[in-house]
Design brief:
Shape: elongated
Structural class: alpha+beta
CATH class of the largest domain: Mainly Beta
Number of strands: 16
Distance between the termini: 83 Å
Helix content: 40-55%
CATH architecture of the largest domain: Sandwich
Number of helices: 11
CATH topology of the largest domain: Jelly Rolls
Order of helices and strands: HHHEEEEEEHEEHHEHEHHEEHEEEHE
Oligomer: single chain
């Protein structure tokens, strides 16, 4: 491993400096005196070189080994690995703030330590060094932007997954309360009716026991597909859980909702024969409970009324609508 003295030796200067991103193309004579003010440090495997809890005054250039970058905590996944010739620590000096990430050596690593005062002296004496530093900084900014964009994309995916049912692609019960409450308040403010239909797939447990969970999943997906085609875009359709669905109908009274529910019931019965194999066709039926929001009602009371209506539909022999 070259020492700092070797880095300033004419036999080593050009070849060694050329391999370091900050010194690529830099005339050795311009920085020789300043390099002699730098030290070399050995970093042990697992040692934390930089952390958000500790102020930093140095740029570290990797002479051998590697350094891993972790965001959030030392145990977080590796964001990027810095290899020989690359540097770390420059952003905290430029921004005059503590490091934003943890820098940890995954193996025995040797670094050239450039104190911030020496760094600025190098900027002053070498135009090429200044240019290299700007290139390093611009790449860091691009990397940070990519990381932010990826993180935002992941957050969006997490939020979508948290509010979307994986099997049917409908909104799930987690998303239901917020969206239903918002629409209920809007209709109450405008003095418009609003109704809720609770939907249950008939004899679904027996269906699963007889034909298996794969057929059961296919049946639920088929029902969801039919339901999506039966309601308006403004209606809020969700998978309530298990074999139950719920749909909120803004601006629709109970009488109209019963007509819609019967149309939906017929559509599901006519359209959801699920093939278990090439010889068997399995019809799927649903029961529906309808309720309209009362003048002084609430989300909870509407849900309870629709659920009670669904219970009456199932007790009436299923494949029917009750209110």
């Amino acid at each position: 491993m070259p020492s700092v003295t070797e880095l300033t030796n004419s036999d080593y200067q050009r070849s060694l400096l050329a391999g370091l991103e900050l010194f690529h193309g830099v005339c050795p004579d311009d920085v020789q005196t300043l390099l002699q003010q730098c030290e070399r440090r050995d970093i042990l495997t697992g040692e934390v070189l930089l952390s958000p809890e500790t102020p930093n005054e140095n740029v570290f250039v990797i002479l051998s080994g590697a350094l891993n970058i972790h965001v959030g905590s030392p145990d977080a996944p590796i964001l990027v690995t810095m290899d020989v010739g690359e540097c770390v620590g420059e952003m905290s000096i430029i921004e005059d703030r503590d490091p934003s990430a943890y820098v940890i050596a995954p193996e025995a690593t040797h670094v050239l330590v450039i104190h911030q005062s020496v760094l600025w002296d190098m900027v002053n004496v070498s135009h090429q060094f200044s240019k290299n530093l700007l290139l390093v900084l611009s790449e860091r900014v691009r990397s940070h932007n990519r990381y932010i964009a990826e993180s935002f994309g992941n957050l969006q995916r997490y939020e979508r997954d948290a509010t979307t049912d994986a099997l049917t692609g409908l909104s799930n019960r987690h998303a239901m309360e917020e969206s239903f409450l918002r629409e209920i308040k809007r209709c109450q403010k405008d003095s418009r009716p609003i109704s809720l239909i609770m939907i249950d797939v008939d004899q679904f447990k027996s269906f699963n026991d007889k034909f298996g969970h794969i057929a059961g999943d296919r049946a639920l997906s088929a029902v969801a597909h039919v339901l999506q085609n039966q309601f308006r875009q403004r209606d809020l359709l969700v998978r309530y859980g298990g074999d139950e669905f719920a749909v909120l109908l803004p601006g629709v009274c109970e009488k109209e909702s019963v007509v819609i529910a019967n149309r939906v019931r017929n559509a599901v019965s006519d359209s959801t024969e699920i093939s278990n194999d090439s010889l068997i066709q399995i019809p799927v039926n649903i029961s529906l409970g309808v309720a309209e929001m009362s003048k002084h009602g609430s989300y909870e009371s509407l849900l309870q009324s629709a659920d009670e209506a669904l219970y009456r539909a199932k007790n009436a022999g299923r494949n029917t609508v009750s209110c």
